[in-house]
Amino acid sequence: MKEEELSNLISSVYDAALDPTQWPRLAQMLAQSFGAESSAIFQLNLTQGSAALMGITRNFDAKAMSEYEAYYHQKDLWAIAMSKSAAGRAMLGTDILGEAEYLNSEIFNDFAKRIEMFWFVGSVVVLEKQFMGAIGIHRPHRARAFEADDKHQLDRLLPHLSRAMLLANPTAERLLRAGLGLTCRLGCLGASDPTKDGELRHLIRQAGLAALGRSSETGGVLALPRPEGRPLSLLVCPLRPHALTLGASVPAALLIFSDPDAGPSTSTQALIEVYGLTPAEARLMAALVDGERLEDYADRQGISINTARTQSKQIFAKTGHGRQADLIREVLANPALRVTNRTPNGSSELR
Contact 308/324 with Cβ under 8 angstroms? Predict the structure, then answer.
């Protein structure tokens, strides 16, 4: 792979991080760059045992997409093996299992064969405690197998793919795309306000070096002016490279920011864990705490008012409250149930 082609790929990786509609284009570019026709970029939720496709090539039709997300990610021998022992480095399919074993596998015969996925090069990267990102590039059986050089070329892209997947969260995307305090130019994070850009880059650079033990500065706090609204509060701190499986010598910084104009709401995941609610009950409880009327919630969710009332009764039974006012008061008084939600709605993390 020529340096110019690699540079274009890296730029496209960060374009996808800022615009989710670009992930399929990136998958297509990856396939072409590796002399293949098939590629898939997806996230694995280890806690829930689920998968979400982010970018795929055209051989993944609607049937293949739904089948992989619903079932076959659990049978993906390549992704399973890499997630257990090879996160953060590229692997060939033949490094993981033999040709005969793959030919006899369920995923090949019932899924991959139809969309011509036989030879494989790919990797998984750790994103969060329970999330992993995965990339797979495939060739049909009639084509030549991937080789060691293909692994090397993918290894050069992995740090950027890892960072891009971490960037891909709603608050970060909204702020970066709108230039509301932060921007991303050619894969480099900076401040929208030119007077603060140098200071932000300095904090990021020093925090990255501190993660490697090469600087006594450990980042800092910065307020970034914005065209409208209050300044964006930003915390920059070191992030040990092994946390992102980027290798022992790659500097990394963690940026945590809070959008003061995005009011906090209630975390449905926290409600599930604290009160033992079902996802549907948690969504209703969060809506009620955030001030939505039961009738409006039922209309928005496309359910009957009777179903919503049944769910609300289950909520009261599980939380031990008989009045909505008491329930709301308890949730509002518990910072864990509010702060937890700030990641998707009021704050975010960039690594």
Answer: no
What are the phi and psi torsion angles at 27 (to 5°)? -60, -40
Distance CA(108)–CA(331), nearest Å, equals 48
* pLDDT class of 163 with cuts at 50, 70, 90: confident
57-83 tens-digit pLDDT: 999 988 898 899 889 999 999 988 888
pLDDT over 60 at 214, yes or no: yes
3-state helix, strand, coil in the chain (%, to 5): 50, 20, 30
Task: Return the H-helix or E-strand segment holding 185.
Answer: strand 182-185
In degrees, rounded to 5, the angle at the alpha carbon of residue 167 between the alpha carbons of residues 1 and 236 is: 115
User: Per-residue pLDDT tens for 268-314?
Assistant: 878 888 888 898 998 898 888 766 778 888 888 889 999 999 999 99
| Pairwise CA distance, residues 209 & 279, whole Å | 42
Q: How far apart are CA 95 and CA 74, in angstroms?
A: 20
Going by C-alpha positions, the residue among 48, 195, 55 that lies closest to residue 128 is 48
Beta-sheet pairing, 119-126 with 220-224:
unpaired
Q: Residue 91 corresponds to which amino acid?
A: M
How many other CB atoms are found less than 10 A from the CB of residue 180? 18
Token reading at 304: 């009957």
Structure tokens at 95: 């490094």
Question: Which H/E stretch holds residue 314?
Answer: helix 305-319
Helix 294-301 vs helix 279-289: crossing angle, to nearest 10: 130
The residue length of the chain stands at 351
Give the type of residue at 79. Answer: A
Written as one letter, the residue type at 204 is I
* Mean pLDDT score across all residues of the chain: 81
The answer to whether the CB of 151 falls within 8 A of the CB of 159 is: no
Q: What is the pLDDT of residues 5-59, one digit of tens each?
A: 888 888 888 878 767 778 899 999 999 999 999 999 998 888 778 888 888 999 9
